[in-house]
Amino acid sequence: MYMTQGLHRSVQQNPDAPSTVFGDRTRTFAETADRVARLAGALQRYEVARGDRVAILALNSDRYSELFLAIPWSDAVFVPVNVRWSSAEIIYSLNECGARVLFVDENFASFVPGLRAECPQLTTVIHCGEGQAPEDMLDYEDLIASAAPVPDARRGGDAPAGIYYTGGTTGTPKGVMLSHDNLAASAMGSAATGDFVDPGGRFLHAAPMFHLADGAAWCAQTVVGGTHVMVSSFSPAAVLEAISAEGVTSTLLVPTMIGMLVGHPGAHEYDTSSVRHIVYGASPMSESVLDKAMALFPNAGFTQAYGMTELSPVATLLLSEDHHHPVRRTSAGRAAPHAEVRIVDAFDEEVPRGTVGEVVSRGDHVMLGYWNRPEATEDAVRDGWMHTGDGGYMDDDGYVYIVDRIKDMIVTGGENVYSVEVEKALAQHPAVQSCAVIGLPDETYGERVHAVVVPTAPGAVSEAELREFCRERIAGYKTPRTVEFRDALPMSGAGKILKRELRRSTAPA
Q1: Rounded to an integer, what distance in angstroms lies between the CA atom of residue 358 and that of residue 346?
Q2: How far lies 148's CA from each of 31, 123, 135, in Å?
Q3: Whose CA is closest to 152, among 45, 44, 78, 55?
Q4: CB–CB of 54/80 below 8 Å?
Q5: TM segments (predicted)?
Q6: Please, which residues have CB within 8 angstroms of residue 392's CB and are 6 or more apart in sequence?
Q7: 3-class SS of residue 184
Q8: Regarding predicted confidence, which is higher, 171 or 493?
Q9: Which among 146, 266, 273, 316 has most CB atoms closer than 10 A?
Q10: Within 10 A of 312 (CB to CB), how many other CB atoms are there?
């Protein structure tokens, strides 16, 4: 398959149906196809050739969606840039992948002089935001208006479609090369469950479009011929207003976003009855937040997706019916239709059911490799199996339970403690809004279990209360020896808690 295939199908079958909705701007499939063909022509006019990398530094918009189509239409490779990165991190990624062209909106135009100075291969910068383009940049709409449409390259299969940089939670970001087939396999496998997107439905892009979680949803929605609705960035009010106004049927959110939605004053005053599917992932969601979300979206089924960028990104899915099961709802689900999943030991041998090992996955969704890092690729993908670095176990019915990042396992007094188990216990307390558990050096025990908690209100709960609460639910050696309260947890652009940052900012005493 190839990235633009769904657009061609929609133009053939529903040319006048809405393709994108962004604010007051709605464009049909026919309009989108014409604009994409012209934009691809403009890229080729500026000597973008097969395999060239074209970067995007922008918030969500209908133009972002057009770029996901126009760049492969021109036979180039898109590189979505993390909008939460510093200039230094952006410069690193642009130089490493050799991006020659950058699309930037008004929110990041001020970065451009510094990027030009530090990225000598960056020859063309195109302003894709609202308003007039700065003098040192080309204007997106002017390019479309002046360019002639060109034929679609239609080069799919194993050809690279995009390079997604990992969030850098474990060090220097790596460029994950994903092919057209990688992205199509993950999208179609997820869509095949019926719990992801609906043909002709309306998908709300509220999570950042630079991240592959939302990118995978974009692929699935494009394949089934639905409408893309965008808000520039997440806010509870913007999301609820878009759902109510546009009749949104599906969306993807991280648990922190869902928690903000259910806690938004007046949330139940919005009409959310159109929503049929809510996909979430990146981190576990507490059962209390899940119950509140089910009440806020009474007609929606909830699906948890587990995976990673290297898996395009879906490996397992916890479908809507499983969310009503008292045990399975705490799992990450079972292997998605396009994936094979195993739990293996240090010798890559499958372990017995119920035994903790490393989660590995195999299938057409496994990445092509890391950009310019063959050794890292060989270490991660062995005999076709992507090694996730996540520790987990599988039950007799194939449900996978994630217990921790293997490197994050805490060894205290000779006992193994998985932070997820402690976090689940803490999250059951009504005064805990969010939490993270890490291991800190300890002279007596080697490591001690340390909890960082964001309370629902200042002073809503004490350290002693939380320790006693946990002791009633988990073993004593798993109970946090120390508890720290904060206003917020450090988060990546994908909504993952940055435990590396927590360790750096937490005193070891």
Answers
A1: 8
A2: 14, 22, 23
A3: 44
A4: no
A5: none
A6: 332, 343, 356, 357, 358, 359, 400, 401, 402, 403
A7: helix
A8: 493
A9: 316
A10: 35
SS3 195: coil
Structure tokens given for 391 = 């520790």
Query: By the 8 A CB rule, do 355 and 165 touch?
Result: no
Q: Is 124 helix (H, G, I), strand (E, B) or coil?
A: strand
CA–CA distances in Å: residue 308 to residues 112, 361, 418:
30, 10, 20
Tally the C-alpha atoms within 13 A of residue 171's C-alpha that lie toward its C-beta. Answer: 1
Angle 62-73/212-224 helices, nearest 10 degrees? 80
The pair of structure tokens assigned to 353 is 């059911």
Query: Quick one: which of 405, 357, 365 has its CA closest to 384?
Result: 365
Condensed to tens digits (0 to 9), the pLDDT of residues 416-467 reads 788 888 998 999 999 999 999 999 988 778 889 999 999 999 999 999 999 9
Smallest Cα–Cα separation from 341: which of 384, 298, 377, 290?
A: 384
Domains in the chain (CATH in brackets) are: 26-173 (3.40.50.12780), 411-505 (3.30.300.30)
CB 239 within 8 A of CB 250: no
The Cα 193–Cα 216 span in angstroms is 14
Judged by phi (left if over 0) then psi (alpha if -120 to 50, else beta), residue 238 lies in alpha
Residue with tokens 């200042």: 458
DSSP state of 223: H
- The helix (H) or strand (E) run that includes residue 149 is none
Total Cβ atoms within 10 A of residue 128: 25
Q: Which residue has the tokens 């970065």?
A: 111
Say which residues have a Cβ less than 8 Å from residue 3's Cβ, sequence separation at least 6.
68, 69, 72, 156, 161, 180, 183, 184, 219, 222
Strand (E) or helix (H) holding 438: strand 432-442
Quick one: 110 exposed, middle or buried, by C-beta within 10 A (0-12, 13-18, 19+)? exposed
Tens digits of residue pLDDT in 247-297: 999 999 988 889 889 999 999 999 999 999 999 987 667 778 888 999 999
Q: How far is Cα 130 from Cα 152, in angstroms, rounded to an integer?
A: 27
